[in-house]
Design a protein that fits this description.
elongated, 5 domains, alpha+beta, 13 strands
Amino acid sequence: MDLRTRTSLFCGVLGLAIAVSILLRGRPNRPRLFFAALAFDMGLWYLAQWLYHSGRSDLWARWTAVLAVFLPQFALHLFEAIVPEPNRRSMLLRAAGILVVPMLVLVLMEHTHLLVRGLVFLYVFGLIAAGLYRLARRGERSGSRAVQRRVRFLVLIGALATAFSLADFLWFIGAPLPPVSAVLSIVFLFVLSESLTRERLVDLYDILGQLLVSTALAFAMGGIFYVFVVLLGGFDNSYLGAILAAIVILLLFEPLRSKAEDYTHKVFFRERVDLERAVAKARGVLLHTLQVSEMQQIVISALEESRRATGAAIYLRDPLGSDFIVGAGFGPVAPARIELAAAHPLAERLNQGGAILLEDVAHQALEHRRSGRTREAEVDERLLSSAQLLGPFRTGVCLGIWGEKRDLLGLLLVVDDRVRDAFSSDEGVLLESLAVQVGVVIDNSRQYRRMQERDRLAALGQMAAGLAHEVKNPLGAIKGAAQLLSDPGDHAQLGAVEQEFVGIILEEVERLDRVVGSVLDYARPSKGELGAVDLNAVVRRTVTVLASDRAEDCEILTDLSERLPFVRADAEQLRQVLINLVKNAVQAMGGRGTVRVRTAIHAEPATALTSAPSGDWVEVSVRDGGPGIAPQVLKNLFVPFFTTKDRGTGLGLAISQRMVEEMGGRIEVASHLGDGATFTVLLPSGEPHGLRAGASGEVEHRAGPTPAAPEAAIPSLKAAEEAVAVRTI
């Protein structure tokens, strides 16, 4: 049995196996049925060749010709089923149906005649070539990019399979060629079956790329072995030739593989290559970027220049809340704000990892409904419902921007509204790598700001120490002298005007003393001891202290959640924060109205949004009925020395924010003009051994590790502060 005979047997069995496998993999549909018929026909065709070579019987030669006549019939029906056009009747199918009968008569009567074989050759390859051309035209008219890609892929596979099968037909008309084409035809038949079973083209391009690269390498290696073993070697030194060929292959394998992969991707995957280049270029530039605004422009420019998307938007987490605010973008107008509570299903899916291809989710939801998987369908539908918040980006790709500690910093949205199914999963992976680099830039930017804050605090600490010596001593002397003037004893009494001036001096000295004290407090390193604290008890004690100092027209109401977990905090610093927030609320209402203080378990999933460990978060909110906070004021609310009060220092909220952050929490602000403001302090649960605060309201304070003092701490600050306290006479 020669090589061609064995190859025909091998390829015939594989063709029948591929036909059976496509029928057993999932529910049969028209494309799969026609492909199975084509694979059966090709398998039987190769088996007929094997039988002909084995026995040289005229019967198997006729069968080979008959099976060749049916090849274009099954191929054309397969092409029509891949991209159906119900409103158009295929003239090519009608012509093929008319030609099949006379061609069968010819091969059954005079199959050995050279003219008949030539007509069969033209009939088979002419119809298949016309069918591939028609398939390519229908694919280009499709509105789905996934369909366009699939059709291009199938046309390429079909053209290659036809070209390699051409060699087998050339043997049929008498051309002596090796049976390499039979093996390659079956390989491409296998890839064609994969294209039909992989509906979303998940790994299809990778399969094609690896196949082409492997084929090129196989031919290159085979050529090297042929040269060294067959041409240069002989029976006596073939072993030496094989060794030399192996050495050459080892030396050339890596550069050959690299060049073959590059060429394959450039020729067949140009869109992906363009996106890869844009992403790689952006990531390279982002390595040296620290400013968030600059980062946004780099990412948006790269996506726009790639021409792979018609729109993109970057959302960043609101530092004063849990919502996302749009930053840079291009294309369709993105919503200005995305509320996290409404987009919770998106956050949950992002927390599971990977990019969300929203069109893929829609396809999955339909498939789950059809297959009766109601639970999975409902999950997908909730996700799609929350995706409506994304506006024109609801059919694109949604990616999470994650921090180093797995906290959700923002969102990256990309859309291409020119076609359906615009992005494949491998492109989602590419965009995900870009989102990862964006998260790195944001983390680095925060770290850089912390370093700047540390240096600023160090300078402020030095200034505060100087203020303690240079300002408080003169203030003490001025205050003492003014007090002596206000109480002259037996000497002549001061007049009304003089008394008023002395009162102004004392009042201003007190105010300057408070300003210097606030600066010292802000620059002072933390002295807090973190432990398990009953938040409700802290709120009750704070309200009790403030109730005696409030105006008659002002009321402080509490709404405390029962069975609240302990929080990990410093009780005294937490009380100071609450006093500051409540006093600010009272002042915002002009001393009249109702301040509501509320505690509750925070519903936000910590694993998806913050760097805190999994577990409960506890919140205490202070709401006033004042005029609200203007947006331009809101963004500067926690900036040191920024104030809207006539006699304020601008350090109260800055100090409160730093205390809360040292406890591992954060302060959020929600305000609308004319509707008051709500300050919410979020703290991680510090519940010891599952215990919760009882109804007694007692504070259980267990010592915990003391947080590291900021590097801005000045060792001499405390001593200087204690040494120059303002004197009171």
